[in-house]
Amino acid sequence: MSETAKLLFANDAFYNAFSSRDASAMDALWAHQTPVTCIHPGWQALTSRDDVMESWRAILGNPNAPSITCRGAQGIIRGDVGLVVCYEMIDKAVLVASNIFVRESDAWLLMHHQAGPCEALPSELSGEQPAESVQ
């Protein structure tokens, strides 16, 4: 499997943990040796692993949290850092997201997630079916 495929697979694992509301899986996907940050839409920046993981436990534990689907993921790798830009479909809303990964112990782990509102899904993705996972 290519490194880009591994990076996109890690990104898929993030959205799978989000969709299945699996806090343990979410925790395992975030870096342990590298500082992490997260900016949820409308939230202040979270700049410690404890705060980031507390935010995910709150989101994933909320029974009213909406479902989410990732679309159009594109990965870029430079050394031990990988960037994935994608679109999040939440109910009828579209968000654009950037997920930055770092290679730790030969695994791609999140070091930053940020999502914000996007006017619409890009036209080249309008007919695309959401991917379940990257092979």
Name a few traits of the molecule.
135 residues, five-stranded mixed beta sheet, Nuclear Transport Factor 2, Chain: A, single chain, globular, 3 helices
Task: Annotate the secondary structure layout.
Blueprint: H1 3-20, H2 23-28, E1 37-39, H3 49-61, E2 68-78, E3 81-90, E4 93-104, E5 107-117
Parallel strand pairs: 1-5
Antiparallel strand pairs: 2-3, 3-4, 4-5
Protein architecture, described:
- This protein is of the alpha+beta class.
- It has one domain: Nuclear Transport Factor 2, Chain: A, CATH 3.10.450.
- Helix content is 27%, strand content 35%.
- The chain is built from three helices and five strands; from the N terminus they run ααβαββββ.
- It has a five-stranded mixed sheet with strand order 1-5-4-3-2.
- Strand 3 and strand 4 form a beta hairpin.
- The longest helix is centred in the first third of the chain and has 18 residues.
- The C terminus is likely disordered.
